[in-house]
Amino acid sequence: MVNLNRIREDLRNQLETDSSLHSVEVRADTLDEALADAAVQLETKVANLEYEIIERGSNGFLGLAKKIWVVRVYQNPDTVKKVIAKQADMPESVHEELGHTEEVNRDGVFYIHNFGSNVYLKVVPPVGSGSLVQLNDVLLALKRPDIKSLDEAAVATCVEKGTDGEYAEVAIFDHNASADATFVIEISPDEMEASIIATSPYPQGAEISAEAITAALQTQGVVVGVDTEKIAAFVDSPVYNVPYVVAEGVKPVDGRDAYIAYNFETDRSKLRVKEAANGQVNFKELNLIQNVVKGQPLAQKMPAERGKNGKTLFGKFLESKNGKDIPLPLGKNVSVDIDGSTIIADTNGQVLLVGNKINVEPIMEVDGVSIKTGNIKFLGTVIVKGNVDDGFEIKASGNIEVYGTVGSCKLEADGDIIVSLGIMGRDTGTITAGKSLWAKFIQNTSVEVKEFVIVTDSIVNSHVIANRKILLQGKRAQIIGGHLFATEEIVAKAIGSMGGGSETILEVGYDPLAKRQLDQQVETQTALVKELDEVEVNIQTLENNKKIRRVLSQEKEESLLQLQTRKNEILDENEKLTNSIHELQKYLRDLKVIGRVSASGTVYAGVKIFVRDVKDEIRTDVKNVTFYYENGFVRRGKYEAPNLEDVKRVPDGYSTN
């Protein structure tokens, strides 16, 4: 039956358990690391921990927008109860040696001491599979000539039930007061430590009781820090002729200074080369750039803590120092979140600690891209003051500007790409720009841009796609070999080469990306139709077998069901592809842009020009000409110069001044 007393007892037990729990707050990259750190701080095993998540961490995407875990960890209450039960009667030295919550086995022990004129017994029960205290052993120890009036029944009760950590009177002994043990209290000069120095009793002398020590401390005026556990341990196992600490003052604890918890690696020397799953190291992936996105938390100021004041043994107040506050290390392109303590990025870019201040740099400058830098992936604009060596990559969410040359590389930018000298792709280099490309020359390279390709010298044996225009404007301004696509216009001084040589094909008047998408979808649909024919043949075969035999094996029934399901999937996919193909075809037919190809110099024989899918193959050299579409044919007219605004076009963020 549950009554008020039972509820009170349960609440008291719960309070005792809760008060014995110690918690720590830890921050780490992963939950496992946080628990491992907490286990070290709480001096226990991870299996003995419980936790609550304050802030859930995240790995982000490709290491970006990464969040750390913040966890409050404490010991499992059941584990704490077991430890308290097992260690309740252990000497302090045993507690210190254990230092953990592992289960131990300990035999029961008993202590017999003379206090005043009486003999007292204390029985400590065993732990785990330890041995019980035996009544005969206790009685044998009490069979002394100086003991009289032994209460054997009381002894038996103590051995059977224990004494709850207290001493129980069981006999009277022949006491000689002049032979009693003596002790003195010594107070340290700073009034923070009280020790007893005891002398051992002579035969028939009484030992020192806990009450005597406590009374002596009170007489000395000690009111703070009396350690009853140490006093009890001394009474159980007396230490004579050496100082034994029984009381300690409360030392003041200065508050911890405020500090900054960084969410990125502040020591760049600790950034390591990436390893593949097989353990191999790719020295092109040096992992030296710490990219962040706008709004990403970069660091948090942990506030200063108030100090904890202390007291001497006599209750004298000891003042502590509060922790010192520090300013937030705000640099460029960062700000403080609404909580007033978290520093966040104001833009995409690279996070750096410069002069103890956090900066986000939207522009990254390097002397060159080589084995020293590795590949570059950057959320912002990349400026290369030298060359980009063969085999390396640059990916940027902004622009890419290269003052030197670009070899057989992969450059990919969401914005413009500017190459001051030239691009020599050696048939493997690729350039992709979300806007336009500027270069002195392009050789043996695949190029794809959403707007303009503007070149001052030549394009040689390259595959170039521009969703708007390809403009060559220099003294040579020559296109030799390769396949060039532009939706609106291709302009050069010379196209092709004398005597033929490499095949030169120019196409204008349609969206090259849409046409490529159309070709891919047509190819996919052709493969689906072929698969559909095979599936229908297999279905027909199985259904005919079922009609003849009236039943199919379970395996063939499952195969038939799978084939019918796949047929329905193919029909659905084919219908979607058909609709998409029709839309792309209509878009390309309705394209209002009338493409043209213009050459202020010579278009050499052998060049093939397509305007809106209509072909004009040059059989004899022509000069000062513009090719355009009219009434289903490619016409040739007098050379028309490109739009002046296009000629003066500069990359975003640049000026012609």
Describe this structure in words.
With about 650 residues, the chain is of the alpha/beta class. It is built from eleven helices and 38 strands. The protein has a 19-stranded mixed sheet that branches. The chain has a four-stranded antiparallel sheet with strand order 4-5-7-6, covered by helices on one side. Helix 9 packs antiparallel against helix 10. Mean pLDDT is about 85; it is low at about 90-100.
Helix/sheet category: alpha/beta
User: Which percent band covers the strand fraction?
Assistant: 25-35%
CA-to-CA gap between the ends? 94 Å
Query: Biggest sheet, in brief?
Result: 19 strands, mixed
Cα-based radius of gyration, to the nearest Å: 44 Å
How helix-rich are the residues, as a percent range? 10-25%
Keywords:
657 residues, alpha/beta, 19-stranded mixed beta sheet, 4-stranded antiparallel beta sheet, 11 helices, elongated
Helices, strands, pairings?
Layout: H1 4-19, E1 23-28, H2 31-42, E2 49-55, E3 69-75, H3 77-87, H4 92-98, E4 109-115, E5 118-124, H5 135-142, E6 147-148, H6 152-161, E7 168-173, E8 182-187, E9 193-199, H7 210-220, H8 228-236, E10 244-248, E11 259-262, E12 291-292, E13 297-302, E14 310-311, E15 317-318, E16 334-336, E17 342-345, E18 349-354, E19 357-361, E20 363-366, E21 376-378, E22 381-384, E23 393-396, E24 400-402, E25 410-413, E26 417-433, E27 437-449, E28 452-466, E29 469-472, E30 478-486, E31 489-492, E32 494-495, E33 504-508, H9 512-549, H10 554-590, E34 596-603, E35 608-611, E36 614-617, E37 622-630, E38 633-638, H11 644-647
Parallel strand pairs: 20-22, 21-23, 22-24, 23-25, 24-26, 25-26, 26-27, 27-28, 28-29, 28-30, 29-31, 30-32, 30-33, 31-34, 33-35
Antiparallel strand pairs: 1-3, 2-3, 4-5, 5-7, 6-7, 8-9, 9-10, 11-13, 12-18, 13-17, 14-15, 16-17, 18-19, 34-37, 35-36, 37-38
Helix pairs in contact: 9-10
